[in-house]
């Protein structure tokens, strides 16, 4: 068995926590681990190969670092140059899995789902694997707990060994229709999880959507391996149809079967779903972080950075981060996407980035800024190095707070320790490296007429990033 983890998407309905540069699959929302880490470790105890992870270019270092943190260092990370939905993504994984003549059973999982009962989930995986080895395309149908309008549904057909034939896939219904589905007992939530042999999927894809398979084969005919990453041919993959696996294959194939699953599943698609699945206090509130609630009921309050108090409210969502606060009626939390679209159209940085931004070498936190200055706290991991670079419009002053910094400014190399500093003039070619065994912490003060992040000219970079 080979897990395939789909790690694309932006999770915009979980703004302000989830943002384009750090979406929900890379956040710790339901435990101390991030959601993608939970997805992988949930399989511990099952016999399986290292996973294939599909993500976009911008998130590649997040995936590699978060896998390293849970001791997964031999996974294949396939980079999608553009998003083309689940059918092409799974095709890329299936082609990768079969390139050496092997034909594993693929367990296709979203990176951002919650499953509370891992034991039951693993038992159902074993059932699904038996069906997959018989040439079936297995989907997991979630036993519904309510008439939910946010999920698609699967209508079950005749029973087969360990599961049911799939009679129909249906789109998200309105509430009266959802209630009819639940009352009938024949409908299950569509989880978006699948299991099948790699060859079975490729055969069915060729039968029902040959264009997707042909383009994916062509795009992977000459791949480039870079560190942990597999790059496919962008110009070819861009021409691929944008289709889900349901539409491209599952709704058409005669080999679709469903295994039912009742294991505390949620797609964590909104703040209200985190309230539904969270541990509630005596007033029905779910709280995270430094909070104080008075006369407040049935609410979700999440504080990341500051103390948050909520008084005299009911059925609300309050989420605080370092640079944004979001307050919503819990019943309207689906509309957060409208706020995100507004931020994107107005080119607000809060659409894409948090105040703290993660890089392959560490992170930086923009702690203050003004008309001609910006102050950052920079953390460089042991043994890591920023690119050799220069700036046209800003000078920088670095003050070491802890750790050791190896700093190069033009032809001068200096080793700085705590309380020592260095000045980098406009136009100076410079680099920063942490040669020590502990994280390097420093304060950077930028000054100049233009302080945006695109004022970087890279001359060399160990992480393969572009010159700008």
Note poorly predicted spans: none
Q: The biggest beta sheet, please?
A: 6 strands, antiparallel
- C-alpha Rg (nearest Å): 24 Å
Structural class: alpha/beta
**Silhouette:** globular
Task: Tell me the distance between the termini.
Answer: 41 Å
The beta-strand count equals 30
Question: Numbering strands along the chain, what is their spatial order in the largest sheet?
Answer: 20-21-22-29-24-27
Helix percentage range: 10-25%
Number of helices: 11
**Strand proportion:** 25-35%
Let me know the average pLDDT: 95
Tell me about this structure.
The protein is of the alpha/beta class. Strands 20-21-22-29-24-27 form a six-stranded antiparallel beta sheet, with no helix packed on it. Strands 6-9-7-8-12 form a five-stranded mixed β-barrel. Strands 14-16-18-19 form a four-stranded mixed beta sheet, covered by helices on one side. Strand 1 (2-6), helix 1 (35-41) and strand 2 form a beta-alpha-beta unit. Helix 3 (86-98) crosses helix 6 (198-208). The longest helix has 16 residues, at 118-133. It is globular, with a radius of gyration of 24 Å.
Descriptors for this entry?
globular, single chain, 11 helices, five-stranded mixed barrel, six-stranded antiparallel β-sheet, 468 residues, alpha/beta
Quick description:
The protein has eleven helices and 30 strands. With 468 residues, the chain is of the alpha/beta class.
Draw up the topology in text.
Elements: E1 2-6, H1 35-41, E2 52-56, H2 60-69, E3 76-80, H3 86-98, E4 105-110, E5 114-115, H4 118-133, E6 137-142, E7 153-160, E8 163-170, H5 175-184, E9 187-197, H6 198-208, H7 210-219, E10 224-226, E11 229-231, H8 234-237, H9 245-250, E12 256-261, E13 265-266, H10 271-277, E14 286-288, E15 291-294, E16 300-303, E17 308-311, E18 316-320, E19 325-329, H11 336-345, E20 356-359, E21 362-369, E22 373-380, E23 388-390, E24 394-402, E25 405-409, E26 412-416, E27 421-424, E28 430-433, E29 440-448, E30 457-460
Helix pairs in contact: 3-6, 3-7, 6-7
């Amino acid at each position: 068995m080979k897990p395939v983890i789909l790690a694309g998407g932006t999770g915009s309905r979980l703004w302000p926590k989830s943002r384009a540069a750090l979406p929900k699959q890379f956040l710790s929302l339901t435990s101390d681990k991030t959601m993608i880490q939970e997805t992988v470790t949930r399989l511990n105890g099952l016999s399986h190969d290292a996973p294939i992870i599909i993500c976009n270019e911008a998130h590649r270092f997040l995936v590699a670092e978060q896998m390293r943190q849970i001791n997964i260092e031999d996974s294949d990370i396939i980079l999608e140059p553009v998003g083309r939905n689940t059918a092409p993504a799974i095709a890329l994984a299936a082609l990768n899995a079969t390139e050496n003549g092997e034909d594993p059973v693929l367990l296709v999982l979203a990176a951002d789902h919650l499953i509370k009962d891992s034991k039951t989930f693993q038992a159902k995986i074993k059932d699904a694997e038996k069906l997959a080895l018989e040439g079936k395309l297995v989907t997991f149908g979630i036993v519904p707990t309510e008439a939910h309008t946010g999920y698609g549904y699967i209508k079950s057909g005749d029973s087969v060994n360990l599961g049911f034939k799939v009679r129909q896939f249906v789109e998200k219904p309105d509430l009266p229709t959802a209630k009819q589905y639940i009352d009938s007992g024949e409908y299950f939530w569509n989880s978006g999880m699948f299991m099948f042999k790699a060859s079975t999927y490729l055969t069915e894809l060729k039968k029902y959507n040959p264009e997707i398979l042909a383009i994916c084969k062509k795009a992977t005919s000459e791949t480039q391996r870079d560190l942990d990453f597999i790059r496919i041919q962008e110009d070819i993959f861009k021409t691929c149809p944008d289709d889900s696996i349901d539409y491209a294959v599952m709704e058409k194939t005669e080999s679709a079967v469903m295994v039912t699953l009742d294991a505390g599943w949620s797609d964590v698609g909104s703040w209200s779903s985190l309230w539904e699945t969270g541990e509630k206090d005596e007033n029905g509130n779910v709280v995270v972080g430094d909070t104080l609630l008075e006369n407040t009921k049935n609410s979700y309050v999440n504080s990341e950075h500051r103390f948050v108090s909520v008084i005299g409210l009911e059925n609300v969502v309050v989420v605080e981060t370092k640079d944004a606060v979001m307050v919503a009626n819990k019943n309207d939390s689906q509309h957060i996407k409208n706020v995100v679209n507004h931020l994107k159209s107005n080119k607000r940085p809060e659409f894409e980035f948090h105040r703290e931004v993660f890089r392959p070498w560490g992170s930086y936190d923009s702690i203050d800024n003004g008309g001609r200055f910006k102050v950052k706290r920079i953390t460089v991991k042991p043994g890591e190095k920023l690119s050799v670079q220069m700036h046209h419009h800003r000078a920088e002053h670095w003050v070491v707070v802890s750790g050791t910094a190896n700093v190069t400014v033009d032809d001068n190399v200096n080793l700085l320790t705590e309380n020592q500093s260095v000045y980098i003039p406009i136009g100076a070619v410079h680099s920063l490296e942490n040669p020590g065994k502990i994280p390097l912490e420093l304060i950077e003060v930028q000054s100049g007429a233009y302080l945006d992040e695109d004022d970087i000219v890279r001359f060399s970079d160990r992480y393969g990033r572009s010159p700008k």
